[in-house]
Specification:
By secondary structure, the chain is α/β, with parallel strands linked by helices. It has a single domain, classed as 3-Layer(aba) Sandwich (Rossmann fold). Helices cover about 45% and strands about 20% of the residues. It has a 7-stranded parallel beta sheet, with helices on both faces. It has a two-stranded parallel ribbon with strand order 7-8. Strand 2, helix 2 and strand 3 form a beta-alpha-beta unit. Helix 3 packs parallel to helix 4 and helix 4 packs parallel to helix 5. The longest helix has 29 residues. The protein is globular and about 50 Å long. This is Short-chain dehydrogenase.
């Protein structure tokens, strides 16, 4: 039997690379998807089961071609981990209309394109997993989240619609509400005075996502929150 295939749009530092490591360790062939060659190469380093693909998830034709290549080279995608994101933070006075559109295109339209691309293989198998990296902003819009919150709220609604439609077909759709700052070299540099307990650990997030894909259909989770114990919620 061939190893299962996991595709990760948004395979950059932090969550993307941690997800790649966790699913590769579980025996998956991992398709790493990002807009830049250097991002894909960095994420694939040290992962023998990983294969890189350069793709802009907002481009429907590019997504279709990329997932056809993944299916031909690795096999049909069993698990889609949608981690692609984009945001410009600011109030309604500070962000531009183009910022809102760009955030929506990456967070929501990209999820739509990637889901459409993996559905034929999942439907043929009668099973599959789609897990989305969401955010607290999808549930409450802060004053300086005008550009980000609307995109994540739209993404959440799309994921919920997909879960309700695809669940009866054996395809599990879930969304991780990531509440807090993920520890990466960049965020650590930006917040040097914050203790370790302030940050979310990307490997811990990846472990939670992996366990969600192990759930039996009789007890599927749609929405799950991940936050450090000190995060105010």
């Amino acid at each position: 039997m061939s190893p299962p295939v996991c595709a990760i749009p948004g395979a950059g530092p932090g969550n993307g690379r941690a997800l790649a490591r966790r699913f590769a360790a579980a025996g998956y062939r991992v398709a790493l998807i990002a807009r830049r060659d250097e991002t894909v190469a960095a994420s694939a380093e040290g992962l023998g089961a990983a294969h890189g693909y350069v793709c802009d998830v907002t481009d429907g034709a590019a997504v279709e071609a990329t997932f056809k290549a993944i299916a031909a080279e690795l096999g049909p995608v069993e698990t889609l981990l949608y981690n692609a994101g984009n945001a410009v933070f600011g109030s309604v006075d500070e962000v531009e209309a183009a910022d809102l559109e760009a955030a929506w295109r990456t967070n929501t339209l990209g999820l739509f394109h990637c889901t459409r691309a993996v559905l034929p293989g999942m439907r043929a198998a009668g099973a599959g997993h789609i897990v989305v990296s969401g955010a607290t902003a999808s549930r409450k819009g802060g004053a300086r989240f005008a550009g980000f919150a609307q995109a994540k709220a739209a993404q959440y609604s799309l994921a919920q619609s997909l879960a309700r439609q695809l669940g009866p077909e054996g395809i599990h759709v879930a969304i991780a509400i990531i509440d807090g700052v993920v520890a990466t070299p960049r965020t650590r540099e930006m917040m040097p005075d914050r203790p370790d307990t302030f940050f979310l650990d990307a490997d811990a997030i990846a472990e939670s996502v992996y366990q969600i894909t192990r759930q039996p259909p009789s007890a599927w989770t749609f929405e799950f929150d991940l936050r450090p114990f000190g995060e105010r919620w």
